[in-house]
Amino acid sequence: MRPQLLFCQTAFGKNLECIREYISTHAYDGVEWAWDGWRLMVPRERRRRRLDDLRQASRVSSAHAPYTDLEIGHRDAEHAAAAVRILRDYIDAAGELGAHHLNIHVGSYGLPLEELSWDGLVRNLGNLLEHAGRRGVCLTVENLTHGLTSTPDWFTRLLKATGAPVTFDFGHAHGSAWVQERHGSVVEFLNAIPTPVVAAHIYFTERNDTHFVPEKLEDISPALDGLAARGCDFWVLELHTRETLERTRKIVDEYLAIR
To answer: Could you tell me where the DSSP H helices lie in 9-166?
Structure first.
């Protein structure tokens, strides 16, 4: 079965008409809304109108929660509690939107261990997962290039402690020290995940917060095979310009044509 293909909204800014047209003309199933750079309004009616606009732009969607200033695992309990409170609102918004899932980061920007509370992280993530379950929302955690979720050992430990499903990020895995120092491959990282892999961010690698395009099918085909083996059929091409998005789509289409 063909996976659902989506692209990241960041490549088109906030131009909803352009996004709607691009979905149709380029045979995508939908879009992932990147809420870190496009926060929701607090007034209920304005938020409702915004979510209505997003639904009209794309029938199928996922959402990526803010992360630059939110850290549920922070040792400062006041900061962590505020992050949990804000993310509960984003879970509610994802439920209203009808998003396939809402993805979050933990330990963003390589949060050092001295600023992390492991017990607080597990407790707060568990609370968010429970809240998401009550709202009928699938909440996923993403592996990152640096920090706690950048190695299978720590990521697996967190997933086993909470049962959280995953959005697997190809480029974060490839760009991590664990892969670059040859402790293992992207596929081995993927195969170590003990919980459901609900979605994937597809591109080649990340360096200095830039997402790079696969130059040939072999750059990503083993990991795409791994996704298929895991039953993951929700693929988001997470590129930040239209040009890199279209180059990556050619590689993905090549893969799907011979699969």
So the answer is: 16-25, 44-57, 77-97, 118-135, 152-162
